Amino acid sequence: MQLIKHLEIIKNSYSELVGEPMPLNESLNLIEAFDDCIYPIASHDNSPEPLFNYANKAALKLFKMTLHDMIGMPSKASALTVNQHERSLFLKQVSMTGFIKHYQGQRVASDHSTFHIQDATVWNLINQDKKFYGQAVIIFKVLF
C-alpha cells in the first residue's frame, strides 16, 4: 500500500476511534506532518506475527533504527522478552476496545538500551473497507 493511503488510515482511524485529531501540523502535506511530529508514531500490520509497517522520524530516533531496519521487523521485538506476554494481552485488549489511552510499558531500542513509555495511545487501524488493518501507537511521554 502506498504511504499516503497508509498515513490517511492512521490519521483517520485515530480521529474516529479516539475522538480527537492527531497532533499533526495541518499546514504540511501528510508525509511531512507525520515526519515533523515531535511524538513517535509507529504502526504494525494485522498478520499473525505483526510486523512494523510505518515509523516516523521521532519513532526511528527513539528505537535507534533506520527505516530500512524497522519496517518488516516483528513489532514484538520492541519489547523485552520478559514483557512479551503482557504486550500480547494488551494488544488483544486494544483489538477489542478500539483504543487505549495512557498506556505505559518498557521497550527496548536496537542497541539494547531500554526506555519506559509513560503515556501513549494505541489504536486499531481500520481501512477504507472498515476492516481491521493493524494497530498504531503515538507516544506522548518517555523516560530513559
Instruction: Find the CATH topology.
Output: Beta-Lactamase
Order of helices and strands: HHEEHHHEEE
Class, according to the CATH hierarchy? Alpha Beta
* Overall form: globular
Unreliably modeled segments:
none
CATH architecture: 2-Layer Sandwich
Number of domains: 1
CATH superfamily: PAS domain
Total strand count, please?
A: 5
| CA gyration radius, whole angstroms | 14 Å
Largest sheet: 5 strands, antiparallel
Number of helices: 5
Model description:
The protein has a single domain, classed as PAS domain (Beta-Lactamase), CATH 3.30.450.20. The protein is globular. It is built from five helices and five strands. The protein has a five-stranded antiparallel β-sheet, with helices on both faces. The protein is α+β, with helices and mostly antiparallel strands. 33% of the residues lie in helices and 30% in strands. It starts with a helix and ends with a strand.
Quick structural summary:
The chain has a single domain, classed as PAS domain (Beta-Lactamase). It is built from five helices and five strands; from the N terminus they run H-H-E-E-H-H-H-E-E-E.
Please give a handful of descriptors for the protein shown.
alpha+beta, 144 residues, 5-stranded antiparallel β-sheet, Beta-Lactamase, single chain, 33% helix
SSE topology sketch:
Elements: H1 3-18, H2 30-36, E1 41-44, E2 52-55, H3 57-63, H4 67-70, H5 84-97, E3 99-108, E4 114-126, E5 132-143
Antiparallel strand pairs: 1-2, 1-5, 3-4, 4-5
